[in-house]
Amino acid sequence: MSRLGASVHLLTSTGAAGRVGATVSSVCSVSDNPPTLLVCLNRTAKVNQIVKTNGVFSINTLIHDHTELSNVFAGQGELPMDERFAKGNWISLATGSPILNSARVSFDCQIKEVSEVGTHSVIFGEVVAARLGEVAPALIYLDRNYHSV
């Protein structure tokens, strides 16, 4: 899978189960009517159950200079969640899930369906709000390294 290049995103969520965030690359557009996307989360990841319990999440697509932020939310340094969020500037849209102010694009979603497939949960979210950010080169992950496109 390391040879399959992918955009890098921060998934965030807030609600009754708490505020969490994680770096993800398994994100895909599913439908434009209603606007829907999916994200895959490992079932053993702590963020998985929190997101499902909250029922909402946002996807924040990272730009080329977000490498450090991506690493922090991937767990580098094992910072507590509050310290991870302190590394960025956040706003909220419809669901309250954190939206990265400097993201290329952000999608605020309500969970509509979850499918358990192998080691991962495939979470389908209907986009209830979106925010366009700076037009800048995107951050991708390929061959176990970051690249800018």
TrEMBL record:
UniProt-recorded Gene Ontology molecular function terms: FMN binding; riboflavin reductase (NADPH) activity
Q: Which UniProt keywords apply?
A: Oxidoreductase
Question: So which domain of life are we looking at?
Answer: Bacteria
Flavin reductase like domain boundaries? 1-148
What are the EC numbers? 1.5.1.37
Query: Could you say which enzyme class this protein belongs to?
Result: oxidoreductase
A GO biological process held by the record? pyrimidine nucleobase catabolic process
Q: Which residues cross the membrane?
A: none
Pfam name, any one: Flavin_Reduct
PANTHER family, per database record: FLAVIN REDUCTASE, FMN REDUCTASE (NADH) RUTF
Put simply, this protein is called NADH:FAD oxidoreductase
Gene responsible for this protein: tftC
